[in-house]
Amino acid sequence: MNVLAVATGLVWLLLYSVFSAIRRIRSGNADRKKAVLYELKTTDTHKKKFVGFFHPYCNAGGGGERVLWTAISMLQRDEPDIISIVYSGDVDATKEQILSKVKTRFDIDLSPQTLHFVFLNSRHLVEDSAWPRFTLLGQSLGSMYLAWEAMSKLMPDLFIDTMGYAFTFHVVRLLGNAPVGAYVHYPTISTDMLERVRSRKKWHTNSDAISSSDVLSKGKLLYYRVFMYYYANSLRQASFLMVNSSWTKNHVDSILQHTDHLLDTLHMCTPLVLLRFLRPSQTLKSARIVYPPCDTREMAKFTLEGRERVILSLAQFRPEKDHAAQLHAFHRLLVSHPEYGKPGEAHVQLVLVGGSRNAEDAARVEGLKALAKELGIEEHVEFVVNASFPVMLNWLSRASIGLSTMVDEHFGINVVEFMAAGVIPVTHASGGPLNDIVVPFNGEPTGYHATSPETFAEAFHTVLTLPPGEDLALRQRARTWAVQRFSEEEFENGWNESGWRKWLPS
Ligand SMILES: *[C@@H]1O[C@H](CO)[C@@H](O)[C@H](O)[C@H]1NC(C)=O
Ligand SMILES: *[C@@H]1O[C@H](CO)[C@@H](O)[C@H](O)[C@H]1NC(C)=O
Ligand SMILES: *[C@@H]1O[C@H](CO)[C@@H](O)[C@H](O)[C@H]1NC(C)=O
Known about the structure:
Mean pLDDT: 91
Bound molecules: 2-acetamido-2-deoxy-beta-D-glucopyranose
Number of strands: 13
Domain ALG11 mannosyltransferase N-terminal: 49-255
Strand content: 5-15%
Enzyme class: transferase
Distance between the termini: 54 Å
Number of helices: 18
Number of domains: 2
CATH class of the largest domain: Alpha Beta
Oligomer: single chain
Helix content: 40-55%
Subcellular location: Endoplasmic reticulum membrane
GO molecular function: GDP-Man:Man(3)GlcNAc(2)-PP-Dol alpha-1,2-mannosyltransferase activity
Structural class: alpha/beta
InterPro entries: ALG11, ALG11_N, Glyco_trans_1
CATH topology of the largest domain: Rossmann fold
């Protein structure tokens, strides 16, 4: 008996058990579908198709969940013969509880008749805490296991990942041979990250010890490189990809184009060549932007006339929001236009509304107050910490200018809210506010961009001195644009154009 024979035997045994598991899962699926239809008391059962949404944290109530539930409510409205399946790890909530939270949190009414939950027990495998080291890899393998659990409980006719678990695609295609698609909020790893390790820059996932040691750094680069290789391969399994912003599109598109000849060659020369069978036949070239819908109903009702001379900032007191830049810009304005600092008609006020989550944020607020004092502008600046929703709306209904200073913000829902409320946005010239939100509408501007205290101050002055007619027209245009572009209808249109329907079995 030699070792080789034992090893070969073991490999065959493993392959045999995997294949028989696959067969078992596949052959039982028709009955599982029937059971779901029976539970939902469905009629016309032969017409029904199953669209599965992989969203293990579906009860979290965040922006990603709004996208999920809006998509499902759209399916319920347009496609009565589709049963939406949500793969969820929220085992301690019931279907009724989840639906009622969707109603209170997002004001979305879902019909229980065409919606079914498949509850998954192994969600802990995709949590950060489960993988203190090699988190990306661990979570990805964990998500594959979770997808296996999902498929063994029910295989859909079309699988859509709405949480960014691209590694699940392999499992779904292998087990269910079902087409997959995704709505991507954020790439798991970006080509930027890879570059950063390559150039050994410090970054939050790249601690000092690693960037100073050559061997570790090379090891880390290899790890990222291999990870990127497989991530890109996973994404290419998708039949359609939607992304939530142009920032995400740029990253996802560059990942789809990513090539690594060395790793390709390695795969050709070793048993890893088998993995090539997992390659899809057609290759997706790019993702489609489908902006998430924003709820602007309240704000869009505010009157546009008679706005107070208030510059409003609406941002949590987090470091990246760069509130200090707001104080400097405002200071600059008062220096170049002292009349704005005098009591009376011309007086301008800066109001910073934002949440303070913890002791660091609270300390930051104190620091900002001290800075305002040092700049001699404290009597013109008001801090509104932890404002309630009505208080925030009240400021939105009164302000003239909406200020956002964060650099490279991926999106900026606060900027959409400014515009819907009729508040003219002045934002940093980068990221979502530059590329997605404050962009010309019918060839005319919807707001202003700036980069330095001087240019911010100039933009404020421009808005404050707009002739009344132009002022009103700009507010109206910004509102019309924001409400329309980030509307549910536009979202639905984006899904329609992504072509997801043609992947349903006929
Ligand atoms: C896209 O998703 C990311 C990650 O959740 C988020 O930071 C960003 O704001 C989102 N963009 C939009 C347009 O909602
Ligand atoms: C704001 O809210 C946070 C958490 O909700 C709390 O810890 C903090 O003390 C609050 N700060 C103020 C100034 O109200
Ligand atoms: C999307 O397509 C469905 C089905 O064809 C249609 O009913 C719906 O009106 C479309 N929505 C938009 C916004 O185009």
